[in-house]
Amino acid sequence: MGFASFLGNSGAVNAVRDLLASGRVPGALLFSGPDGVGKKTLAFMLAKALNCERREPAGNDFCGECAACRKVEGMFAAARDDLTWRREIKDAQRRVEGLVYFDVQLVEPITRYILMEQVREVRNVAYARPFELPRRVLIFDQAQAIHWQAADLLLKMLEEPPDTTTFVLVCPNPHELRPTIRSRCLRVQFVQVEESVVSDLLERERQVPKAKRLLAARATAGSVSRARAFNLADFERRRQPWLDFLGSALGRGPRSEVAPDWKALFESTRALTEDRKGLDETLRIGYTLLRDLLLILEGGRESELVNVDLVDRLNSWASELGLAGVETMKAGLDQAYRLQTRNVSQQLGLDALAVDLVAALGREEV
Ligand SMILES: [Zn+2]
To answer: How many angstroms does the Cα of residue 185 sit away from the middle of ligand 1?
Structure first.
């Protein structure tokens, strides 16, 4: 174990390892870049490396096995558990009661925000000597969600970080942070993980067959965590009703006199909304199809398509829909996306989309 087990983003990994080797890890770092590429994981690896008992003075790795490395692992797990149960507490006061921070701490939004109480607790520990480890590492995940009242307090700490403490701010887009906060941190930029790395992972960990690996790699969009959780059968099961939906609305030739198969259309919208809890994922897949159709219409490259196994069908659907049809589809998906958080029949939204789509194609007066 060590940094070699980190997948992708060799630029970011090397930047961190160079800092370790130079012995000059700054008091504040900012890890930014897309979701699911391992920013938080690398922050915890850094915490291990800074504390590893087996690291040589100019070493740039960690063992993952010594008492210190294991302690960091334990602190990480404890922090995650603590955040999980706090998020379930309804009462605002009780939610932040009894916060205890260890030498390596994960700070994440408990509500929509990282709260004042959380940052105060960070300050309480940051300036004291670490309890158990040589170096304290305080990781703020989704740092952009820090409550505005707490941002000043954080800034003060970043301006004068205690000798024994390293702050790591983690966020997708550094420009969502205040410039004053951003400028105090050394930035390490992450990028989407290469298709080949994701593809290898899908083979090794998810046993995705070769023929489907490109589709799976594109569907997980350069994210290691998405790839780790990817379920091909589930993806295809959720995508099928979209194909039925498009297949029933389209494919009868331009300005056809033949009425669309309404029964099949409404059957597909029912199938799409059957699993309410998974609707988010179903809609996400709908958006990949939409994006592919748009890409084709705009003359984009096939190498950028997600649904690479459907190229022929996508091509014919795209030419039939045209930009206006794709626009209608987008409006319908956006509407379904907005409705999903509300307690309404989501099928109604997609039924409306079916009707709009058919009307937009001039198939039938509606
Ligand atoms: Zn170690």
So the answer is: 26
Domain membership of residue 221 (yes or no) is no
Domain boundary among 139, 164, 189: 189
How does pLDDT run across 284-321, given as a tens digit for each residue? 999 999 999 999 999 988 888 999 999 999 999 999 99
In a shared domain, residues 127 and 268: no
Report how far ligand 1's centroid is from the alpha carbon of 48 (Å). 7
Which residues are in the CB-under-5-Å shell of ion ligand 1? 52, 54, 62-63, 66, 69
CA dist., res. 61 & res. 96, Å (int): 35
Domain count for the chain = 2
Q: What is the pTM of this model?
A: 0.83
- Structural domain boundaries, residue 172: 3-189
Cα-atom radius of gyration of the chain, to the nearest Å?
A: 25
The Å distance, Cα 56 to ligand 1 centre, comes to: 11
Domain presence at residue 65: yes
Strand order across the 186-189 sheet:
104-107, 136-141, 165-171, 28-32, 186-189
